[in-house]
Amino acid sequence: MYRVHNITQAYSQAPWRKQLQWVGLFMLAIILVAMVAGIYLSVSSQASSAGREIQIMYSEMEEIRRNIEDMESQIAFMVSNTEMEKRAQEMGFTKVPAEDIFYILVPGYFKPNQVDLAGVPGPTFPSVATVAPEYTQSLFDWLEERVFDPASPLVQEVKP
Amino acid sequence: MSNSGSWRYTTLGILLTTLAIFIVVQMLRIQLSPQAEALREKGELYSGTWRTITPARGQIYDRWGHLLAGNKTVYEAGVVLDEVENPSTIALALNAVLDADYDQVFAAASTKPSPDAIYATVARFVTEDQKQRLDQLSEEMKSAYSDQKDGNRPSLAGLTFEPRLQRTYPEKDLASNILGFVNWEGDGFFGVEEKFNDELAGSPLRVWIPFDPNRVEEFPQVPQGSSLILTIDRVIQAEVEDILEQAIEESGSESATILVMDPTTGDILAAATSPRLDLNEFWRYDEVFEGSTPFNRVVSETYEPGSVFKVLTMSAAIDSGAVKPKTTFLDTGSIEVGGTIIRNWNSGAWGPQDMLGCMQHSLNVCLAWVATQLGANRFYQYMENFGIGHLTGVDMAGENAGRLKLPGDEDWYEADLGTNSFGQGVAVTPVQMLMAVSALANHGQMVFPRIVLSIIDDGKQYDTTPRISGTPISAKTADRLTEMLATSLEVESSVALVDGYRVAGKTGTAEIPTPYGYTSSQTNASFVGWGPVDDPRFLVYIWLEKPTTSPWGSVVAAPVFRQVVERLVVLMDIPSDAMKGQLLEGQ
Questions:
Q1: For A117, which of B65, B71, B586 is closest by C-beta distance?
Q2: Does residue B283 lie in a domain region?
Q3: Are both B496 and B349 inside the same structural domain?
Q4: Which helix (H) or strand (E) covers residue A22, if one does?
């Protein structure tokens, strides 16, 4: 019995060493938590500033749209019938009487009867979200997807 | 540690545990309480804001793509009440820069802030320049009075500007009666603005905008309102409006209306009427359109058309076979129809006349006889086929159907057949007459008048197609009438004739009914004509209301037709008859 006790005592850690191990483990846990918190803060601050930028961009888009409308109207004012007539008169143009006009036939010429403002219609894409799921789904959403739908691609392609 | 001190730790532990349990219980109680939902909603209110995204109103173009109605940025000036430092300065500044009423602005800016009074609008339609002047003023005040701690220091604090798109009309009053206008709230009034309000305005969308940038979501795409391309040619419209103004001045008329249509497609190329409003100042509506003055006489005002209606009566009679162009009628100066004696415009007897003579001299007696030969049933059937008394369906708001009394109606008498035959006792709109006469100008096929050529929606242009309303008369009858009316003008040496172009037409002079009967002192003078006769490209309708220089359509309205056509042939690239012949020979 004494021998057994001596052997156990010989292979036991010293109390100060045990304490140090516990302190070390605790510090490791603290460092891990701090790292996770730091990463979380960094990512969430990046997400926040990206979100804020998106909000600003939406405002800018709206302002640009308003500017386009403004510009179109300003151009229309500048080339309005009254303005164009005034400018033509200032440049010495006068209204032509019917008898002064000479007509010629131009084979193949076809005068359009109206304007085409829409242009050539382009290909249409179905309406899809332009933000990839990686940016919107949570870790749990992703884990759930991996567990229940492991065949789904890891990165989904998103078309505008 | 001695045992004597352990009870303190035990007590502290119990207290802390009790406190924790109490907090948890309280949290659960609040979460599950009846007020929880309301509290959650209240909390949600502070986490973002609801915003209505109003799409830009669709634009309106003429047939060549010139912008007739667009949008521009204006600002709504308002005050955030709890930020206002000096209401008097705000009122003074707005009075100086915007000419706003001092008292009203002062009262609004002085409102005591409360949960129900947070913001007050103080001015609308603030332009970019005006906003910049106010912003500059605000900055100058800040730098000049920043040291002054006095509560009465000049300050524009609290004054804010909210941008928004407002309708603008680059051509000002051009085609204003066709276009209509849009008020501050974005509602269309009159013309195509009202008729197509839903399409032009698009669908506003209410979205939740979170303040938390982490919760920002993609903005939904709100498509712009549909745009319209009208059949109007702005140059023709402008020329016609100039001629109209000149005609009103020269004839001393109360008002005038001129319509130009392509009789083959129904495209209204110009529709000018008076008065007109600079649509950028729509708030002057009451000032311009006093009393019951209609905004758009083209579709809204009915009147008795007078002798221009005879073309419909004669075409119906010839088409039905009741008379032939060579049929002779002995005009004794009067005829009795349904107990009413009908006389000619000069009360004279014109002796034997064929149908060309009847039209040439515009004989009421002859046309009343023609109507009796046709019979009431057939006459009214034809008139209904011509669309008289029915809406034309033209795409402008406020159309009036007019009135055609029919046999069987309580107020119809046999005498009406006689008077209706020369355009009295029947109420029509100018656009109705235009549509009816298109049957004559388009080889028997009557076209629906159209004002919208295309609709641009979601980047695609959808063209409307010309529609035939019916064939009230045969092509042969239409061509015969056209020939008769062209000859009639030539024989009369009418002032409506245009050098180099053969045109057909008919004058009209209608006495205006009053509560005391017809008055010959005030008339509606009109003219309807089309050309070139061999291939009609235009149909023109002129109506002068109460001309004072002469009551006769042949004197005041016919020259206006000539003026219009002289410009039309140039603007529409229509070669003279002789030149067209040469061109065809050269082919």
A1: B65
A2: no
A3: yes
A4: helix A15-78
Higher pLDDT, B347 or B276: B276
Ramachandran angles phi, psi of A28, nearest 5°: -60, -45
CATH (domain of B94): 3.90.1310.10
Q: What residue spans define the domains of chain A?
A: 1-88
pLDDT of residue B1: 47
pLDDT at A93: 94
Note the residue count of chain A. Answer: 160
Q: Hey, are the CB atoms on B575 and A103 less than 8 Å from each other?
A: yes
- The 3-state secondary structure of B93-133 reads HHHHHHCCCHHHHHHHHCCCCECCECEEEEEEEECHHHHHH
The pTM for the full model equals 0.83
How is B342-357 classified by DSSP, letter by letter?
Answer: EE-TTS---EEEEHHH
pLDDT for B440 equals 97
**ipTM > 0.85, yes or no:** no
The alpha-carbon gap from B207 to the nearest alpha carbon of chain A, in Å, equals 13
Give me the mean pLDDT over the A12-34 stretch. Answer: 91
**How many whole angstroms separate alpha carbon B158 and alpha carbon B155?**
9
| Mean of the per-residue pLDDT values of chain B | 91
Cβ–Cβ gap B461/A116 under 8 Å: yes
Q: Is residue B286 part of a domain?
A: no
Residue B134: which domain range? Answer: 54-230
Please list every residue in chain A whose beta carbon sits closer than 8 Å to the beta carbon of residue B537.
Answer: none
Together in a domain, B16 and B100: no
**Percent of chain B predicted with pLDDT > 90:** 74
Q: List chain B residues with CB under 8 Å of A79.
A: 66
User: Quick check: B576 and A131 CB within 8 A?
Assistant: no
